[in-house]
Amino acid sequence: MSEETKGWVDRIRAGDVRALARAITAVENRSADSAELLKASFALSGKASVLGFTGAPGAGKSTLVDGVAREYRKANKTVGIVAIDPTSPFSGGAILGDRIRMQGHYADPGIFIRSMATRGSLGGLARTTADVTTILDASGRDLVMVETVGVGQDEIDIVKLADVTVVVLVPGMGDDVQSIKAGIMEIADIFVINKADRDGAERVEREIKALQSLALRHDAWIPPIVKTVAANGEGIPELVAKIEEYRSFLDKSEAGHQKRIENWRNRLVEMLRDALLERVERDHLGNGAAGRYAAEIADHKRDPYTIIEEIVGALGH
Questions:
Q1: Does the pLDDT at position 203 exceed 70?
Q2: pLDDT tens across 221-240, in order?
Q3: Strand residues in 60-189 grouped as ranges (E)
Q4: Model-level pTM?
């Protein structure tokens, strides 16, 4: 590790918010020193619990995350929040809706909030979300909370990162059952019915329970259902209690260790895919090569299968 990186990591560990913000920016932009920084940070990580909050747009995830963060701060826990926002079509950066909704924490050094743009990534997370989580973990935060962008039925990448996944539903959206059937049912460790003072909350609860009877988890955990009205704090203490109950369940069983192994297996595949794609783009598709290949395929001068075989074969040399 270089002296510069060591000093940077030391400042992050000492609570230097500017150094932490700079580190996250370096990781997001994949700057030249980000790889060394991540290697150093990983050695210091592994202590924070990662909580994931996912669900359809309009479910009130930001307000819920804000309330949960406040509840943990009452117990003197330090919190890092990663809020995945849509990408601005003008700047390419995050549309800072989540940061604005959580701005009440700006004077609290125990909470660090970072908005990230999806930058075209699907699945509810940005490409570097997991790396940013590692940096926050290494900074000494007790909890790292990740709020996904809210893309609906495909938004299941959070399960590969979070220790505890909270799926947020809301009455009256009309497609609650469909969103659950599409895969969200399988990833939920805890269900939250937010805005539970609306008509239809009981119906949503019945539907979740009915679907739970059809889906058995390998770890024998039955995801609890918590009703909240996050806007006024109702149900937040109960939600935190259920989060802690599931964390305790993971600690006492082999399920937690197996979950971490599975998460890292998935992440390794994704990291390898990204690294290989970057190498191919740099070494084989640069200087107009991608355009030439595309033109040859479009004109039926060459087939894409042979081109891919040639590029993949060249990676071994």
A1: yes
A2: 889 999 999 999 999 999 99
A3: 79-85, 111-117, 143-147, 164-169
A4: 0.84
Give the gyration radius of the chain's Cα atoms: 21
Tokens of 316: 């071994």
Say which residues have a Cβ less than 8 Å from residue 288's Cβ, sequence separation at least 6. Answer: none
What single DSSP character describes residue 229? B
What is each CA distance from 56 to 160, 174, 245, in whole angstroms?
A: 18, 11, 25
Residues in Cβ contact with 83 at an 8 Å cutoff, skipping those fewer than 6 apart: 62, 65, 94, 98, 99, 102, 113, 114, 115, 116, 147
> Rounded to whole angstroms, how far apart are CA atoms 37 and 20?
11
CA distances from 107 to 76, 110, 130 (A): 15, 9, 26
Angle at which helices 129-138 and 17-28 cross, to 10°: 160
- Cβ atoms of 116 and 83 within 8 Å: the answer is yes
Query: Tens digit of pLDDT for each residue in 268-298?
Result: 888 888 889 989 998 999 899 999 999 999 9
Q: Which residues contact 1 (CB under 8 A, 6 or more apart)?
A: 9, 36, 39, 40
Task: Give the pLDDT confidence of 110-124 residue by residue, as tens digits.
Answer: 999 988 865 444 443
Give the count of alpha carbons within 13 A of 217, CB side only.
Answer: 16
Q: Which has the closest alpha carbon to 126: 105, 151, 89?
A: 151
